[in-house]
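Lab meeting minutes (informal)
Scribe: AK
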Amino acid sequence: MRQGSSPTARAGPVSRHHRPSMRGRRRQVSFEHRRESGEVGLRLPVRWSSAHRVRRAFLRSVNSSHTRTKKDTMTPALEVRGVSRTFGGPAAPVTALDGIDLTLFNGSFTAVMGPSGSGKSTLLNSVVGLEAVDSGTIRIGGREITGMNERQLAEFRRAHVGMVFQDFQLMPYLTAAENVGLPLRLAGRRVDDERVRELLEAVGLGGRADHMPSELSGGQQQRVSIARALVTGPDVILADEPTGSLDSQSAVEILDLLVSCVNNLDATVVMVTHDPAAAARAEAVVFLVDGQIDGSLVNPTADIVASRLAHLGRRVA
């Protein structure tokens, strides 16, 4: 079934040419909203030329002594329970998040959408501990982060969370390779230069490792940021409008890379976007309105997502 509004909808069988490299094991993405959960199969195509390079780089990372053991497929990559956040004083409180419940498993690609002011940015910042929550719990890879102090959160993010930003946020005085290795250096870990270069090759920049960000196009800089997000083998990759500053062709290529990371690395990607076409590349879309989850779509299409957004926009206008 191509689209659906029920979390229990299933995708059709995966063809031999699009089969993920998991030896038959079915991935799942689970949402919990009003105590509902479900499982979907894969539907997104993989460009095997780039996917093979990504997988080769990943296998080297797995063999590295600096990389954690294989992820536990039974433990959610991200688990949010009853999370609320209010800004302002008692006289004029503004509720940014209101009892958010969300569970995502390894190997899932989820888009988060909603009208302006719906709580998307607050949710993303709260998930990584950049903003404290008033109530509820957040677990990444099975570890609760809501009780951590600032130092613990910073150390945890470096090891367990990959970030991809709209404006790339590369260090302008570092080369592409140095930018990719920066999370390891900040964490006090040895930078494996060969592994860094293999990740750059995986994202199509094998010949640009020594280039400065100013010598790269916007699409190339975003590729560097994706390689940087992958270098620590994170539990979850959070992408904040990753195609927002790119032309249409570069945007397609970046989305291809994110899909390949999910299909071949068991990466868990959470992407905030305003673009229905970008959201349609995800396995599922979660909609936020006034700080609450207002349903989800599995196997979304751009038309269905755009229609749903227009409906939500009219509700809050």
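Next up, CB showed the second protein from the same session:
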Amino acid sequence: MEKSEKSQQQSQTATAPLILIRSPELGTLIAVLGLSLIIGFVNPRFWLPSNWLTIMRWFAGFALLAMGESMVLIIGGIDLSVGSMASLSSMIFAYLIAEMSWDTWQAFIVTMVIAILVGLYHAAVVVRFSPPLPTTVPAFIVTLGSLILLRGIAIGMTKGFPIKIYDESKIAFLASSQGIALLVTIAGIITLLIQLRTVVGRYMYAIGGSLEAARVAGIPIHKARAFAFIYSSILASITGMLYAGLVASGYADIATGQELYAIASCAIAGVSLAGGEGNAISAILGALLISIVRNGIVLMGVSPYWQDVGTALILVIAVIVDLTRRTLFAKV
């Protein structure tokens, strides 16, 4: 009896970490709550509505980028261009409104079309070289090139100067809390439905799980991967236009480096960098965690110049957790 009781206790003790490993979203949620309590204890200003409004504004951008990135990661690829795509979109959107006197919806549609073309370009290169190469290899190369190219175009448009939008009535919706919340909510619902309730979503998970098995099964791998890259570019473009609304200008460096935040947001909450796992909820929770970390660094009296160090540590931890989780899954 004693041995059986001990074995039950040991199994129960081992179950708790196993649950967190199997459900990284739950672990991320616990981290968000725990970190919030710690920061709030050190600096009560953390709980002020004005501070949370600041957190939510930047969280919105991180979440949109991460949701788009999650699509590409699920198929076993990677998109390093989302930050530059957002920056270029903010410049194009602001230029069309401020310099060309276009209506907001006209500028929005044209900016989105450009993003779709960029996504198609990424997909075309990936399809050309994968297979025989794994999806990650051509995806890494082509999106790394786009990271540099798109940012260069954004800087070259005005030689690095921002484009001010003086008629703020045209961007009032994007600058409002209601508009930001609505954009993120709609994007989150659509992304989650695509991933979990559509044929395309099932195709993407199958491709990320095993490209060769998906090909043998007759899954249209080229179309599914094209969809993922286009979707990622679209959400990156929306992020750039959202940023343009928040600061009432297009700025070539407004989202520089945020591709790393997008990848870290996904990886820390369960979107596997090896493909085939995760969803929009993971991306959203990861983006919230990173937003709180960046805000907490400032509130706890640490120089804001150390924010990137905090993000880098989160990214490294996320990769280690992801690899550990996959190793343990293989043993279970």
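CB comment: The CA atoms of residues 113 and 153 lie 17 Å apart.
No objections, moving on.
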